[in-house]
Write a structure and sequence with these properties.
Length: 354
Amino acid sequence: MHKSKSLVCGAGRQGKAIAYAMNKLGHESFISDKDTAKLESLPDGVKRVPYLHYLKYLKPDIVISALPYTENHNLAGACISGGFRYCDLGGNVRVSRLINDLADQRATKPVMTDLGLAPGLINLITQYLVRKEEPVPRSVRMYVGGLPKEGLDYNHDIGGHLKYGIVFSPEGLVNEYVDTPYVLEKGAIKPAEPMGDLHAVSISGINLPFEAFNTSGGAHTTLKSFQNLGVRDCSYYTLRYYDHAKYIRFLYNDCKLTRKELARAITNCCPEITEDVVVMLVRIDNRNSFFTTIYPKDGFTAMQRATAFPTAVVAHQISTGYFDCYKAVNYDHIVKEMSSFMGGFGCLLPEVKI
């Protein structure tokens, strides 16, 4: 019996977690990275392969990029040219559009970008819930926050003005804060103010106050899908502990820091943490339709579990050939088959119950 081969490109935190999850889902799991030092410590069952020779050498059933988004277009192009199934964590609207356009033009096997957490898991959950609603809802709000766990554990403010700990690339975080977000407003897709629509959020059972604001990338193709369904308003928000936005705005807008300087400031102000929590909330027509908290487990951070594990579940399904009839796979294609994904979510991420 053929055992599917999966190849993860990029052996950072997310890449190693994806490779681990693919192994758990029954794949012969391989990983590759330019930095060979990152390959010295790998999860059990994951094998390393030489960089640049992996496609021809392995002939994998699925290639998953956990590289910086700036490298995704080149890797996706190589996979499309070679006829390999491909997916990535996405997060940058421009790069994801380029990859989808290339797939529509030239792909012979399915390609999917914007997997992970946001964009990714939150979009799949929200689109699944909205498609079950009758009549079509008017308003949808998606909230996601990756935060220091101690804030929820002890219901008190954590140290430092930013009240934050680094759980993924500060450069990627700054892109989300600074790039233009888009919203669905009164039936039209429009640009919004970066870190705009700042508002307080209270969550039942959690005494610590949250705030939320628009950020780039989290809504992406969901807006067009909901516009076609007849949803009038849809926004994606990043959740933070209260007052985070005030200091980020001060540094960027008032102090005129560049993106690189802002990323450096966040790095200097905030520790890199492993004890984190991911908070996810979906509000449909002003009622809470989904809520969960994801914590570290089995040596993986909450952000790794919430980002890498959903990516692996979808990549596993794509690897089977089930979606080979598509060129550029989107959330709607996945949502239509959501029941077949729930076993994978239950195995790797039991907090996701919809």
